[in-house]
């Protein structure tokens, strides 16, 4: 099937038990485009916190991140079940990538004045591209016509909602935020309703790999902040605190990677309830991972005198999303697969990490806690095994 990418081929369901199924170059390109949009959202969060507007910036960050993640996730699970790599599939996927770039372009306007125009345009482009793919799958997967049709109709209805929201809802009012949250609920309901008709044949190991790859890309946001700290330290106004920030960012990135890629396999069953919990719950892992990078960027601005907040706020901007990252991993994996004391390591250390900056500024201790969480979890897990 994959030796004729220029042809127009049928789109039957993929074999969910296919051996050696791996991410394709097109999927990796889709990830790269998605991370451009994620970086734009993280930059918006970083600037909002640095300017003293965290209460406004955090909800806007999550709203922006949600639409990027949701479009990425829906494409990922579709591709796992139906990717045939023919010319229309490639073109429609590239159309969705263009939509992601429009979202990235519209993110600053949303953070500044709640203008959702470009976000809606980019998101609708991404989602309607997926509708076309679901209709192709419906044509060739007769056994799951009800499922594929539910997906297509559900996505179209959700996009009609977003367009209507943009046309009639005034930005900046409480009702506007409520209506956005309602739109998210509609989007989340589509797979839950569609999959109950008949489960799509997604490939478990392929999905695990795809989520792991996006986790690595998101952690790149933290590494980028480490580089920014070193650049600021050597720009003619050397400050040893910036070196501490860079080293702490590096250590925390490695600890976050180790937490995610531990010995336990993610998504151990294909049951719908488990798949929804694991798939949906990762929004916390992804969003908080990118937010840690934004937090380190805030610290760089605090130390260089370009922020309007204190060092403690900068530490909190790192510690709180790091704690959320630990809790997200606990929710999607540890709470399901670990037993005994090891099961509770991440939530306990999440609490310690979140509380520490309220006592005193201690970025290095936050990094040490992340390393200790990895080490203690591994030691307790070995005892159980």
Structure commentary:
With 385 residues, the protein is an all-alpha fold. The protein has 2 domains: 25-194, no CATH class; 204-384, I/LWEQ domain (Up-down Bundle), CATH 1.20.1410. 77% of the residues lie in helices and 0% in strands. It is built from 12 helices and no strands. Helix 2 runs antiparallel to helix 3 (87-113), helix 2 runs parallel beside helix 6 and helix 10 (311-337) runs antiparallel to helix 11 (345-359). The longest helix is centred in the C-terminal third of the chain and has 32 residues, at 272-303.
Give a topology summary.
Blueprint: H1 25-50, H2 54-82, H3 87-113, H4 117-140, H5 145-168, H6 174-194, H7 204-233, H8 240-260, H9 272-303, H10 311-337, H11 345-359, H12 363-384
Describe the structure concisely.
By secondary structure, the chain is an all-alpha fold. 77% of the residues lie in helices and 0% in strands.
Q: Could you tell me how far the N terminus lies from the C terminus, measured between alpha carbons in angstroms?
A: 43 Å
CATH fold-level topology of the largest domain: I/LWEQ domain
Order of helices and strands: HHHHHHHHHHHH
Radius of gyration based on Cα positions: 21 Å
Features:
0% strand, single chain, 385 residues, 77% helix, 2 domains, I/LWEQ domain, mainly alpha, 12 helices
